[in-house]
Amino acid sequence: MERISWNQYFLAQSHLLALRSTCTRLAVGATIVRDKRIIAGGYNGSIAGGVHCTDDGCYVIDNHCVRTIHAEMNALLQCAKFGVPTAGAEIYVTHFPCLQCCKAIIQAGISSVYYAMPYKNHPYAEELFKQSGVEVKHIDFNGTHSDAKNEQRAALVKELLGRLADGSEMETELDELYERAQRLFPESIEN
Ligand SMILES: [Zn+2]
Ligand SMILES: [Zn+2]
């Protein structure tokens, strides 16, 4: 049995939270950790009780969905709501934080940011983190499956799609299947 590392464990938690996202633009999850204990979590979504982007579509202004509260912000606000100190805590996020979240993270006294995926990494956010002495680390998230198994799965899906494509006339369906497979195995399956 392979034991999961703390980094992988907390990132897995963030990825799990991302599945609760209600903004269709990007599913993000954030987990705040202190002394190896999870103290808060958040995902991209509307205010409590508000309309969801998944139901009504995003409310986009200047290319941003203004309905959504970002995962990092939601996690920090959960701490504010229940009076949990964030000074010296760490945050694990599925994506590199945006500029607004970067500033909130710094101001809340978070000491380290661990992220699984780069996302339009803003140079000013990187600069602010550095200037504030916040450690920022990119962690390769492996999921809960071993890489080897995942590659085998990707190979199988690829082979099946290839066989389907041979002499098949259902092009739109195949394109859709390819897209879904690519989302599942972004590194292993290209169209
Ligand atoms: Zn939205
Ligand atoms: Zn943000």
TrEMBL record:
Q: Where is the CMP/dCMP-type deaminase domain?
A: 5-132
Entry keyword set: Hydrolase, Metal-binding, Zinc
Q: Check the record and name the InterPro entries matching this protein.
A: APOBEC/CMP_deaminase_Zn-bd, CMP_dCMP_dom, Competence_ComEB, Cytidine_deaminase-like, dCMP_deaminase-rel, Deoxycytidylate_deaminase_dom
- Could you cite one Gene Ontology molecular function of this protein? zinc ion binding
Q: Which cofactor does it need?
A: Zn(2+)
Q: Which domain of life is it from?
A: Bacteria
Sorted alphabetically, the Gene Ontology cellular component annotations on this record are:
cytoplasm
- Family stated for the protein in its record: Belongs to the cytidine and deoxycytidylate deaminase family.
- What is this protein's name? ComE operon protein 2
Q: Which taxonomic lineage does the organism of this UniProt entry have?
A: Bacteria, Bacillati, Bacillota, Bacilli, Bacillales
